[in-house]
Amino acid sequence: MSAAVSGEALRIGLSTTTAEPALTGGRLDGIGVYSRALLEHLPHAGVEVLPFSFAPPGDARRLTVGRALPLSFPLATLGDLLLPSSVHLNVSRAMGRNAPPLDLFHATDYRIVRMDCPVVATLHDALPISHPEWCSPKMRGVKNWLQAKAARKAQHVITGSHYSIRELVECFGVDERRISVVHHGVRAEWFDAPPVEARDATLAQYGLNAGYFLFVGTLQPRKNVERLLQAYLALPPVLRSARQLVIVGAPGWRSEELVKRIKAAQQQGENVIWLDKLTDDAQLQHLYAGAGAFVFPSLHEGFGLPLVEAFASGVAVATSNATSLPEVAQGAALEFDPLSVPEMTAAMTTLVRDDAVRSRCIAAGRRRALELTWDEAARRTVAVYRQVLSH
Fold this sequence. Notes:
The protein has helices at about 5, 20-25, 30-40, 75-80, 90-95, 125-130, 140-150, 160-170, 195-205, 225-235, 235-240, 255-265, 280-290, 305-310, 325-330, 340-355, 355-370, 375-390; strands spanning about 10-15, 45-55, 65-70, 105, 120, 155-160, 180, 210-215, 245-250, 270-275, 290-295, 315-320, 335. A 7-stranded parallel β-sheet has the order 3-2-1-4-5-6-7. Helix 9 crosses helix 13, helix 10 (about 225-235) packs across helix 16 (about 340-355) and helix 14 packs across helix 17. With about 400 residues, the protein is an alpha/beta fold. It has 2 domains: about 5-185 and about 375-390, Rossmann fold; about 190-370, Glycogen Phosphorylase B (Rossmann fold, 3-Layer(aba) Sandwich), CATH 3.40.50.2000. The protein is globular.
């Protein structure tokens, strides 16, 4: 009798490849944050979690979060392509000879292969296919083909927003009946204001004055930071003088021109700060706490976690009205057309000059963030596991 039927705690294998410091260099992207959050919160939702990573040959001994799967992802994928569909990756081998089998494996990114247990996969978006212009062209065709094949191997798919369902159906060919929406969340500590002394020390370390405009995200075309910079530079000089633009994010693909523009603005005496190497979670929370407004102008998001981090931190938010972001914000943010620099500038001006609007956005954002916690996401994820195993 399976654990799903008997009511016992499920044994869940969880992909932690994107949260494994030995494989990421210690820098978490959005999928890494998601994987780490599930690792921490799923046990509180009543399941036993066993973390696994696809490690390149020779790297298995360096893993600190979980254990290595029996094969690297390229080799496992090759096996899926060349061997009969009855052949599966034997995850039990990685658990030891006498370990009880897994009830289910949860792949938190596109690294999906056939396994000796049901597989649930979280697919955050279909960006390489829906918007190839925003992704690296290196091996794009092969990667897209592999991702589409991988997406169809999972018994069920989780995605972070209702917006993403259409993309997954159209681009990956996933059956909509096999997709569940589980909104992402924030950690509980985001709701607690950090100690003033610690916050001020971080701001002083980076030369920041409280009340700045804040953006958080990797510098890449879809994040639309170039228009954000233009919108900031279009603000009245007195406003730019009083409030810095603080950009937190590592340079990503095709960011060279943006980096040049940021540095040019700095050389011209503009109040622009770029923090490209920030990896400390506590310091990031300090930066949110010191912001006067959070601006998120992204052109495309499967969810948009920084939005919710800002809500929980008690910061007024202006965001783009594109893709999943209105669904996530639920009216708690000022929305603008991300292709319109004047609209972005107007929203930024309103948030720092209109006390009533700013207060309303802060209160609405806190309420929205309380609906989007990792504890709630974990409970909903376990409900998907049990639904899959009951069929």
